Every structure is written in structure tokens, then in C-alpha cells.
## 1
Amino acid sequence: RPANSEVASVQRPQWDNKAQYILTCVGFCIGLGNVWRFPYLCQSHGGGAFMIPYLILLLLEGMPLLLLEFAIGQRLRKGSVGVWRAISPYLTGIGVGSMLVSFFVGLYYNTLIAWILWYLLNSFQDPLPWTQCPFNENKTEFVPECQQSSTVDYFFYRVTLNSSASIADSGGIHWPIVVCLLAAWTVVAICCIRGISTSGKAVYITAILPYIVLAIFLIRGLTLKGALSGIEFLFTPDVNELVKPTTWLDAGAQVFYAFGLAWGGLISFSSYNPVHNNCVQDAVILSVVTGLTSIYAAMVTYSIIGFRATEKYDFCISENILTLLNTFDLPESSITTNNYDAALKRLNSSNPDIVLGLDIHTCDMQKLLSEGTGLAFIVFTEAITKMPGSPIWSVLFFIMLLCLGLSTLFGNIEGVVVPLKDLHVFPKKWPHEALTGLTCIVSFIICLLFAQQSGLYWVTFFDNFAGSVPLLTIGLFEMIAVVYIYGIDRFNKDIEFMVGRKPCIFWQITWRLISPLIVLFILVFYLVTQVQQTLTYLVWDPDSVSSSCLDALTLEKMQLINENPLIIQVCVPGGVSSSVICGVPLMDQRCDFSFGRSPQRGRPHVRFM
């Protein structure tokens, strides 16, 4: 371990000011996952009930590991590889693991940014292109595929991605996405070309603008009909969820994901601080900001979801009223939204056979609210189309997503470039600009995998597995390395040297015992549940009804399960194997037909057995 004077004398880039450092860390942590994953998990686990384990684990799991990464990076003045190699050469693998996770996550993250750019460019139209189905080539009718599904689904799956029917069917390159990918990686390269000297200035926009846009959306959302219903649904707790292990598992994983722990970016950022910077205060500030932002973003999301659900509910009631009026030849004002339930009950009592034969839809407000947040490109865009001045709101929305994605990607690139320098993979004379440019070029080439027509399915796999088990494993080994190899007493003295006082008893207990046990429990429980589950992914296949490998009984089941479009579960060719990017051994898997509901929009999904 270097002496104090040696550590302090290591020449590193410096932040222009403390605000720049905090904004960079906030931008890195507050990404797309906080805006979309947290609201979805709240919906999945009983609304406000999920916030209880989330806030508890944020305190006992997130804050201690966050301070650990801040302190070790600031003290040793190195990136994720250099820090762990300085402690022990045998720990170099922790840094390499963080670098690889940052690299893999950065690949699919920038693919999402490419999709955001595509939607942003298409938002400068009135009406928005996903508000109506296009005509066929003869201009005689709408495209059948769009009519079978919905306009927002069709625009996302067919127009934006031109998705194939299986992950095994690459379908070739979809060039509009390639162009957007090139633009996305170019923007990232320009912002990160000189490290924090350029990305540190970009965060003044990418970290602050999302909060402004979220505030605008919240104000607008609260003025929409049904917004309060959505927020009420979010904060109505289902206490039964608190006794379910999966609730605590998801809360723990979300804390890891929300803070960007074990990616290496936070270690690199803190290494640019002055040695005597108050890293304890920084960890507390960032923890509070991250937790409050997650709740804040959830309120914004569910104000819009409440409006969307109310619009669907009102439309459902209106359709049913029109059916009843036409069937029973009633005056137009005899059935209204206010007396609909009583009128339906009266007609059902007097004419049960007629009512039974009608196409009366079940209009359930709670079911519409609990459909989940789903994909930003589907659910939120659908809600925006129903808002007055929809193009303006669409532009604001996708600018916000663009800023959220870019600010997180700055940390991912830092988590790759700095370890590459520490590993001396390339000659020392290579400047930072060359390594950043090379990283972005290689990443763009690999991202062409996601620009195929099967790219959505690969993005799904990367999203599900690249940032789950690896992060938990790396985080666990980070705590073991600092507490039991580097030495907790030595670590305490380092913090005392930097901050001026020894860490309090809270940090001691969490570092030594509570945090490692929590992460270990989450990791083991996650692996056990994953082994018991089958690997699934959603597939878009509007021609599924013509598939020759389905018998009549299977087709009948499909018609009962599917909503739109018609989708089957596609068998993977015998020679294809699926590998999970999480250190789990490669598994050859056979495919069997099995029907189930997808957690998103009730869609069927492909299942590997």
C-alpha cells in the first residue's frame, strides 16, 4: 500500500468544483432504471408497501457500499482495477469484473439511447406517427398487422425495430437503428473524449434537465383527469407483500441498480476528488437524492398512468353504453357514465338472455391501473397521444430520457477507460482521447448485434442478466476485500485521515456484518429462484396463426390467451444454445410449447424449457 504522501502526490485529473462532482454522481445514479424500473416494482409489489423494504435496504445496503466505494477510490486515487490491485494483486479480478459489467451494460444502454433518438426525431410531427395506423401499399385500407395490435405497439415493434419472430432469426440489419446508434455513440464519444473535463461540463445539462422536465410533467399530470387515482394507487400499500421474500429481493436488487454500485464508475469519479474531501457527507447526500428521486419519478409516472387508465376506462364505459342504447333502442340520455352500473344491472335483470349475448366489456379501473408501466416506448407514448399538444410533450419526454441515459453512460465509459489504463493493456503513451475513441468504436461495432431485427430480444437478455448477478457478486467481494483483506481498522484510519473523524458505529456494523449478509442472502435467493424458473422472452409474431407446428387445440388456447397481436411461443433450433451473462454455466436447452402470460401487457412469451 502506498504511503500517505505517495497517494496524495499521484497526479490525477481534478473536478472543477464540488457541484460538478455531485452532479456527475447524481446523473450516473439517476438513470432510466430509476424512472421506469422503480415505478414498475412498486406496482408489482403492492404500491407503497414496496417503499418500506426499499428505504430500509437503501439505508443498510446501499449507503454503506456507496461510502465504501467513494472512500477507497478517493484514498487510493485509482480506478476500479487499480484500487483492488493496490490492495492485493489477487483482487484484480474484482476490478476486471466491474469493467466488463460496465462495458456490457453500456452496450445495451446506448441501444436504448438510439431508440430514444429515433422517437425524439419522430416527435417533431403533428400528429405523432404512432397515433394512427398507416395505409397499405394500395392505400385502400390500414395495415392489418397494426389493426390487430395497437398503433403504439406497431410503431415500436414494426416501424422502429422491424422485429423478427425469434431470437434465432436475426432478420438482417435494420439501418435506421444503425444510424441512430452511430449518432448515439458519437455524442457519447464527444462528451467523454477528455474524461471528466468534458463529461463534467455536460452533466450540468444532462443531470439537471431531467428534474426540470419531471417537474413539468408532474404539474401537467396533476391537471389531467384521473391523475390522482394513479398516485393513490401507487401509495396504497398492500401489507401482505411485506412477508414475501421476492419483495425484499427486488428491493435489494433495485438499491444496487439505483446507486450504480459495483460498476466501477463511482470509484473512478471519487478518485478525482481532493484527498481530504468529505466522502461520508457525499455518500449521505447521494443516498437521500437517489431515494427521493425514485419516489418523485414514480409519482410523475403514475400521474400519467392514472390519466391513461381513466381514458381507457371512460372509453370502455362509452362503448358499453352505446351497445346497450342501440340494442334496446333507448333514448341517448337514458344511460350515462354516472348511472351506467345501475342501468346495466336493471337491463340484466329484465333481459338476461339479451345482455348475455352482447359484447359487453368488463371495465375495471383497478385492473387498468395495475397494468404496469411497461416499456417507455409503448405505455408512456400511448398516454402522451391522449394529451393536448402531444408533440410538445413527446419532445420533452424523450429529451428527458436522452439526458438520463447519457449521464449514466458517462459513468459506464469511465468505468471502462480508466481500468484499461490501469491494466496497461495499451501503451502508456496512448492519450485518454484515443482510449475513449477506441472504446466507443468497438462498442458501436458490437452494438450492431442490437441493430438486427432480433435486436430487441438480445437487449432483453442483456438487461435481465448483465446487471444482476454480476453486480451482487462484485459488491459482496468488494466488502469482503475491504473489511477482511485490506482491514477494517486500516480503512477506518484512512477515512479519519481524509475526513478528520472516524466512521461512527453505524458504518462499522453495516460494513462488518449487516451489508455483506444482506447481499449474500439476495444473491443466493436470486440464484435459487432463477434456477427454478424457465428462461423467457417476449416475441412479436403477427403471423403466428399460420404456423404449421401448432395443432388445432393449441391454436384454440392461443386465441383464448392472446390479446393482440397473435403471438406464438417459438421453438429455438436444436443447435442453438442460450447463455446467460452472469457467470452461470452455458446451458443447452430444449424448447417446448408452454403458454403463459407475460408480465407486460398480458402478452404471451417465448419459453425455453
## 2
Amino acid sequence: MNEFETRAWRAWGKDRTYVVDSGTGVQVGYRDNVSGALVPTDPTTARVLARWAELAGAGVAFPEQRSERRSPVPTVGEVAVTAAPVDEVAVAAPPVDDVVATAAPFVDEDLSFHRPGQAARARAVAELDARRASVGRFRTWLGRLVDARTDERAWRIGADAEESIGAELERLVPHGWRVLHAVPVGTGDSDIDHVLIGPPGVFTVNSKHHPGANVWVVSKQIRVKNQPVPYLRNSRHEAARAAKLLTAVVGFPVAATSVLVFRLGSGSLTIREHPGDVLVYRATKAFAPLRGLPPVLTPGQVDAVYEAARRRSTWQPRAGGARPKGPRD
């Protein structure tokens, strides 16, 4: 397996090569092909990026990362969106032992390059490394062999669910929808699994993986294996926060609807009473009902909301400095 994937990007007089760690799906930074400078996503990825530069300088070829919808374009407002990280650190090039960090201009990150489950997968890898350091490689391997319930397992299973559900949601794209994955929000480690923007409006999607479980839904509660879970409350909070953040940027009121999508395998989903403001689907049956919802946004409004939603600074304004101005400013 190749250690890295790359993606070429040229726009507005800039020429860059973005680098993704194939093992985790995490973007580690980019090389400015004009100046030769390396710009890691954050200081922790500087050495990984330098490793790529060292291999590339030695003539190692890496596969090109492809995406059907993701060519960066100028956005509404004063900050151009690129696939670059929020807090960039420019470093001098290749030698791994000579990486020197200096401040670089703020460039907003284009979240449309995020993969489904990207944040959860990176967290699973970090938990795996931490467990190996704590109990050793053999005990870690043995734990995975017997499917021990560890933090790494929880994050890994969550990433698997996000990836499969994300692929199902991508089927909406040819029908005028925009889909974002692993959208970071707030000041902590929280993220929204998927954000859908289409003619029927904006939807925040929470992916859940309960293989073989029986899920029971009423208006005020969801039970998994007959145990109550806070999924409705959490989903409503997620949608309300998304609506508030998007409205602050686009210049017109944006409503968001929460969606719960379950990957159940041989399990069952029984909806005795609909929760009303939360849509609940099985992963294999989410596409058709979502596509069939009545339109409430014009194509222009869909584009405007998407341009705001794809910016990291919309969801984490403090991380990106001052929030870009919207039409009302």
C-alpha cells in the first residue's frame, strides 16, 4: 500500500501539491510548488509531510487522489477557500531533521475534501498507537483478535459506519445535493458526521452502527437493545447549532433538520411514533426518502449555503480568526 496520496491544485496564480496520509485519510499539508515551501496542517504533521517530500525528492511516485465534485472555487465573501488547513505553519523543505516552523498567512480550509469518517479514523489510529505504547503490540493484537471493547474499537467501528453511510449519501449528489463529511464544529474534538445541502434544505446526519441490534423509536425516545440512548437530544442540538452558524454567514435564515441513520446489518428498526423534527432511517433506505422531500431552497440558495458550509471558519470561527463577511456585512 502506498504511504501517501497527492492532489495537484492550481488556482489564482498558486500551484500546490496536497498530501494525504493513505493510512488515516488525514491531509498532512501541502508543498508550494512555486517556492518549494512545505506547509503542514499543524506542527504535529510537519515531520510526516517532510517524510513525503524526502520520498518524492528521491523519485518515489504516489497515486493521485481523485474526487468527482471537489475542485476548489472562489467563494462568496472575502476569504478564498482552498484545501489548506486553518492554522498553517510554513516549514523549510525536505530534510526531516531540519524542519523549521514559521508563521504563514491564514488560509481557510475547504471541508469538501474531507472523507467520510476521516476524523473518527484518525482518532482510531491515535488510540491504537496509544494502546500499543501502553500495553504492547502483542496484547493490542490479541485484544483486536477477540474484539475487546476498547476506545480504539469504538472509534474504528464508528469510522466504518460513517464511511458506508457516507457512500450512500453521496448518491444524492447527481440530484442537485451537496454533501460534506466529518465537519469539525466548536472548540473541542466534535464533528458532524455528514452535512447535506439540497433543494429540500440543510440536514445534519448522525451515523450510528449497531449490528444486529433492535432499535425502537417513539416521539421522545430511542432505545437500542431496549436501552435508552440520547440520540434524539444530541441530534437536535447538532442541527440547531448548524442552523445558527450557517445563518450567521450566508445572510438569510437557514433551518437545519437532524437525521439519524442506522447501520444495523441483521438488526431491525421499528418506528412506533415519528420524532417529528428528527428523521430516522436505515442506512440502506435513506436515499429515496431524502431525495423525495419537497424543495424549499432555490439552486442559488443551495450554492450560497454550500459555499459557507465548506469553510472551516464557518463552523470554528475562533480557529480561523475573524469570520469571513457575508452578504449582510
## 3
Amino acid sequence: MSLLFAYITVLFLIIRSAVGQSSYDCSEVADNFIPCVTYLVELESRPANRCCSGLQVLNQMAKINDKGPRNICQCIEDLAYTMNAPYVASRIQSLSRECHIHFSFPISIAMDCH
């Protein structure tokens, strides 16, 4: 498990520098979304508390302006592409229920941000 954590940490640092180049602050989106990845790829049976609290932060960020939801979605899409993470559709759908949250931004297996 510690090896997995080390791998995710290194991957996070690489991704953070890659997605941080966007006009929107994707590094903040990554900081808040990365804790959800182990759940989304079925390495954990439940989302971590940091995942759920990060999603709450993203919800607040999405409400700041009209482009917030689309920008957050795009950052998450870029993150998934960079990580080449095989998110499981049922896990994406269950995030809302597991974290007791309604998303203010689109999130799905297709990641249609428009």
C-alpha cells in the first residue's frame, strides 16, 4: 500500500505540473480531485474523506463564475487523459451518493464538458 501511495504521489506531482499550464487553475482542481482516483479505478472500496471534501471545494469553485463548471470538467478530463486512468463508470456515478453531494460541474465516463 505504501508503494501505491508513493506511485500516486509522484504521478500527482508530474500531473500537477502538466495540467497547471491551463488558463484555469487546474492545479487546484487536481489537488482536490486526485484523492478520488483510487476509488474511481477500484483500488479502494469507498472514496476517501479527502476525496469528498475535495469535491465540496470543487463545487464551490464551480459556482464562482459561469465558466467554472466547464473549466473544472476540462481540468478533470485533462487529468484523466494525462494519468491514463481507467475510471469505472459505476464509480463515477456513485461518487455523488457516496460523498453525499450534488455536483455543480459535469463528470462522467465520457467527460463531455460542453
## 4
Amino acid sequence: NAFTGEFPISVTRLARLTRLDLSSNKFAGPIPFAVNNMSHLTGLFLQNNKFSGSLPSINADGLDEFNVSNNSLNGSIPGSLSKFPKSSFAGNPALCGGPLRPCNPFFPSPEPSPIPPETPSEKSKNLSVGAIIGIAVGSTIIALLLLLFLILCLFKRRSQQPKPVTAPTGSVPPAEAGTSGGTTERERNKLVFFEGGVYSFDLEDLLRASAEVLGKGTVGTSYKAVLEEGTMVVVKRLKDVAANERVFEVHMETLGKMKHENLVPLRAFYYSDDEKLLVLDFMEEGSLSALLHGSGVSGRTPPNWDSRRKIALTAARGLAHLHVAGKVVHGNIKSSNILLRPDHEACMSDFGLNPIFSNTASSSRFSGYRAPEVVETRNVTFKSDVYSFGVVLLELLTGKSPNQTSMGEEGIDLPRWVQSVVREEWTAEVFDVELMRYHNIEEEMVQLLQIAMACVSIVPDQRPIMQDVVHRIEDVYRGETDDGLRQSSDDPSKGSDGYTPPIELRTPARSVTP
């Protein structure tokens, strides 16, 4: 046969199926975890296809025949499948573990404690009586010297008692720190998890996990780590960290307390001289940047207007929560740091990391999204966050990436390009051509454009605060019946009703002031 497409998910509903043979076709995409629904499988044959991604952990007790050879799979072989021979996995160069070659960890494993050399027993038998007496006397003298040294140290320590000393290890109570052990655990090469976490693995589990590079961003490299039991997390390997261990720990505790449905939660962190790691949830839908611009994915359908409105509102709510409840500046807002759930609700990621980096490292961190004042001062603020969010709104409306090398002949940035088009009263030319197929949305698009233009004002004090941005985007939904987006709450990060739209949002559809 020559069947194409992804793994036929409907097959997994056949719970009593005992043998599934999809071999020698042209199926592509991942092998879904849902194959575990077929708990009576004794044989699974997927060889000679184009399946990609990592192997799920398959726990069918009766599975005694298995073959995924000659595909494009990567990552580690789950423990539940390691009983099968090499031939079952041949032709997948990126697979590792189990019967194949060991997997290479994506960061160096902690060095083992040095093992003291064994004392040769042979030589002790040949020692003379004089040598034994000499050793005994020498040992006694050394012991006395050590005892004297300890007494002197204790005396000196007591004499210095009134002087300030460094806080002892683990002095932060777990309830306040939100971690499971503080400095002591990191000294033992342990991940520090936050309270209420959903994961139960340690550093050694991560070292054994297969890793796939998701992207190299401005703060470091992100990996998708697939643990042996099939759990997927994102491990962010930070670079150019200037903060010392204590400052890093305290700052991570602050970020770990940021809980909101439109923020990607920080689950754990790790600090050593060589590595600084963050562990976060894996979001299968990817980023807004990939959704809008493809990111090399063929066949991706551009988002419709409803999806773009929803992304704009939910991302604004997440950012407003950071500003209002957490008093935290995001500092790195861009479409690749806005991750999506399957229902296209947005979650802000990589927030609040600027304080742990040096100023020199942050100078190139916001290409295309940074506010004009950040270029000069290199200091991010709530107002510079609003500017960057305004650029994201323009990206949603125009479909253009702010990181494009040129826009028109002059090579100007996205906000200036939009302003120039609007100034010539060609407002309709601003919008993404993919949106032109939808009817009766022009007024809403113009309203959102007005909000974006207010956010990217050159003068910081003329930009709205994020609470107002949330209210204004909600106003775009006036007359809509989407109760899921129109929540009633006093917290602007959760939505609000009864808000009177500003005068500038009641202008005619084509009247936009840059």
C-alpha cells in the first residue's frame, strides 16, 4: 500500500485489537501515546514509514512483536520497549538507548565523588617492627597536632561571634522559598522543585533523557526532554548568567510563585558553576511565531481572526498579571515567547529573567520588539513591556515578522511601517491578506490596530498600562457572545465587564491616528 498522512488515531479506539500492521506505507508525524489504549496488542509493526519524533512509552503487557525500523524517529528508547532487539529500531539514526548506543546527555552529568585509592595490603605484611613503631608514634603526634588545631579554631570562632556571618545553607524555610531544599540540594546536584509541582523526577532522570533542540533563543537554548516513562518537559539551558547562586535562587523563588492560566509555569531550576537550568511545561502547539510564520512547517493553516483575537486577549491577561500581581517586568516579549494551548489560548514564557543577566548581554535581546528607550538605557520597564506587546499586536494584524530585514524600500521597523501606511490613509493595506477572506471584521481589526498604535507610542508615558490594554481588547468583543473570553472579574488579568471604552476606540472604522 501507499497510505499517507499521520498515524490513524481512530485505530487506537479499538481497545481489543491484538495486531496492528501499518508497515511499508508513507505515514508521517509522531507515534501517538494513545496506542496505549490498545491494551491487548501482541504485535505492532510500523517499519518502513516516515514516522518522526520520540517513541512513546508503550505498556501493553502482551506485546511480544514490535518493529519501528526505517523511520525518522529520535530520542531515547523507553524502558518498556528496550527488551526488543536492535533490528526493531534499525534505520533510525537519531534513536538511542536500550539495545542501541547510549544516549548523550544535553548537559554534563555531575562529576562523581573521588574514590580514595585502596591501600595495598601486600606492603603492610612486609613492614618491619621499627617501621610499625615509627608509624604509631607519628600518628600520635599528628593526632595531637590536629586536636590542638581544632581547639584554636573553636577559640577563634567564639571570639568572632558578634561579627556578621554568611547565612547558613538552607536558611530559607521551604514554605517561604517555595522549593524543596534550597542550596543544600543544589550542592548535591539536585533539581529544586517548587511546591505544588506535578513532576517527580531528579537530575539523574534528566541526564538519561533524550533531548531535542527546540530553539536557540536570546536567553539560552531550549530542549524538549523525554524521560524514560514518556514525560515531556522543556529544559532551558541559560547562558550569560551574571547572578551569583544566592541571587539566582531568590529570583527563581519569586518567578516560581507566578501562577496564572496565561503564564507558562516554572517547575524547577538547577544551579551550578557550569550549568544554570530551568524546567518548564512542554507546550505541544508551539509558539505564536511558528503559527504566524510557519517556522519551516509545511501545510500549516494561518490562524483566523477569532484565533488572533483570543491570542491577543489571553496574552494581555498573562502580562497584566505579571505587572499587577507580581510586580514583575517580563523583559523579553516576542511572538516566539508566546506559547499556545490547543484552544489557542496564549501563555507567556521566559518572563522576568533580565535581572540575572548582565546589562551587556541584554543589549541585543529585543531585536524588532524593543522599545526605543531600551536601546539607549538597556533597562526594561513596565512601559517597555507595553511597547513590545504592541509590536506583537501589530504582528498579529499584519502577519509580518518584526525581525524581517526590511519592510518596503527603506527597511524600517514594523511600528514605523504601520504608521507610514496609516498616515497615507491606506489602513486596509496594513492587514494580513489572510484576514481579507473573513467578512464583517474590519471594524474589530481597526480597533485592535488603534490599541497597538497606542502601545508603540515613542513616548513611554503616552503608552497605556497593561490593565487598560486588557480592558480595551475586551472592548473589541462588545456585542460578542463568547463568554469564555468575557470573564467577570475585578482582576484585569482575568477579564472584566462594564468597562466604558475610551473615546479613541469609538472612531470610524478607517480613522486611525498613528
